[in-house]
Amino acid sequence: MTTSQVSHAPAISPVTIRERVGLISTTDIISVIKGEITGLHIKNAFSNEVAEEITRNFSRSPGLNDRKDGVPGQYVGASHYRKAAVNYYADSEDARPFVDMLFCDLVEPVRGIFNALKRDLQHKGIELRLAQSEHGQANICRAISWCGSGPYALAPHDDVAQVLCAGNDFELSAVAKNTVGALNFYPSMPSEGGDLRLWSHKPTAADRKAQGVEATGYPYSTTYLETVPYRDLQLRAGDIALIDGGFIHGVTSKSGGETLRLVLNSFFGFARPDLILWWT
Ligand SMILES: O=C(O)CCC(=O)C(=O)O
Ligand SMILES: [Fe+2]
């Protein structure tokens, strides 16, 4: 056996999750992208009425599409996953009216956090803004219902590989050196399953290469994760979960009836000490 074929057990990194009910503080959010905690679970962060309206708008959206990039799911919005910058920003511009339609005239919860963070960070001399290029600007979020089969509706993955491979003209690649925060709002959740599973492992570039996922961070095999402890975040409609997207995570399959599992997802992180970028 050559050295490159020797497989090492994944290194275990401790996972620290902070839990709150109702209250969202910008300090907690910033703790995640500073790498001080691994995750934040906020229960009852937004109202049932807002959650139901967004879910209705998603289900009847004229911008609802099946993903065609090998990750099973239905979505409204744009994903930079496996895309060149030029295509991602063009897709974001095209999808913007449909993302806006998810919220109609609601006071929109993702924008609410973005604006609160922006204000708070400004006082600290840090700019927060949507990622952009001459081809356009990222959207505030994308909406997705995962539909993978087997034990995971969304297979175990990390959110960093896709950023590392985003290319130099993507503006985002600088963030991959720091913590990539993944912010998830849940407007609809099944009564059972659909948990966000977070493994105690933050793969390195060498780990990704050995697993054959260096360009995507998706999917990690069950065998690779066999010895790694994990935590399940049991989410309900109206919850928010924010995690360090460098840790392997996935979504367990839903078992509680036909209710849609809907997530509004965005990514953000430090591109420079004085600049945080936000994209989807
Ligand atoms: O749906 C979720 O809970 C997680 C979504 C996620 O991991 C992603 O979009 O990369
Ligand atoms: Fe993810």
Could you give a short description of this structure?
By secondary structure, this protein is of the alpha+beta class.
Detail the topology: elements first, then pairings.
Elements: E1 17-21, H1 26-33, E2 39-43, H2 48-59, E3 65-66, E4 73-76, H3 85-103, H4 109-123, E5 127-130, E6 132-133, E7 136-137, E8 142-146, E9 152-157, H5 161-164, E10 181-188, E11 196-199, H6 205-210, H7 222-225, E12 230-233, E13 239-244, E14 249-252, E15 262-272, E16 275-279
Parallel strand pairs: 1-2, 5-16
Antiparallel strand pairs: 2-13, 3-4, 4-8, 6-7, 8-15, 9-14, 10-13, 10-15, 11-12, 11-14, 15-16
Structure in words:
With 280 residues, the chain is of the alpha+beta class. It has a single domain (11-279), classed as q2cbj1_9rhob like domain (Jelly Rolls, Sandwich), CATH 2.60.120. It is 24% helix and 28% strand. It contains 7 helices and 16 strands. Strands 1, 2, 3, 4, 5, 8, 10, 13, 15 and 16 form a 10-stranded mixed beta sheet that branches. Strands 9-14-11-12 form a 4-stranded antiparallel beta sheet, with no helix packed on it. The N and C termini lie far apart (41 Å). Mean pLDDT is 93; it is low at 1-6. The structure holds 2-oxoglutaric acid (AKG) and fe (ii) ion. Fe (ii) ion is lined by residues 157, 159, 182, 245, 249. Pfam families: WelO5.
